[in-house]
Design a protein that fits this description.
The protein is mainly α. Helix 1 packs antiparallel against helix 3. It has one domain. Helices cover 76% and strands 0% of the residues. It has three helices and no strands. The radius of gyration is 29 Å and the shape is rod-shaped.
Length: 130
């Protein structure tokens, strides 16, 4: 089998797109797991929120413990929603990567196979009827 620039190109494109499909598929699995089994979201403690929201000067109203707990719940909900959105965007990006690279790989692999068949037919002697 003689290697020419075209066949080298086909193999390189096949290699690159196959790697892209594999990376996309792994990313799809990881993103799906992130959606199905999300990580525990960050939840600020009441003490942390109290420190962040303490009055800067005399006379400013301080927050009650209930208000701080409510703020902690709201921040935890925002973080959870943000994490879910990130996982969904990751899933869609990885799906796009795999779905775009797969047909490119398929086309180039067919070209490799076709080139190999042509090369084999040129090198094999014709065994016609005797």
């Amino acid at each position: 089998m003689a290697w020419d620039i075209r066949q080298t190109y086909y193999y390189l494109v096949c290699f690159a797109t196959l790697i892209m499909v594999i990376i996309g598929a792994v990313g799809v699995v990881q993103s799906t797991l992130d959606i199905v089994y999300p990580a525990t979201p960050y939840r600020p403690s009441v003490a942390e929120l109290h420190e962040r929201t303490r009055p800067r000067a005399e006379g400013e109203p301080a927050f009650t413990r209930e208000e701080l707990e409510q703020m902690a719940e709201e921040e935890a909900a925002r973080m959870e929603q943000s994490e879910r959105r990130r996982a969904l965007r990751s899933l869609l990006g990885n799906l796009a990567l795999a779905l775009i690279a797969a047909p490119i790989y398929s086309y180039h692999w067919r070209q490799v196979r076709r080139t190999e068949r042509v090369d084999r037919s040129k090198t094999q002697p014709d065994a016609g009827p005797r």
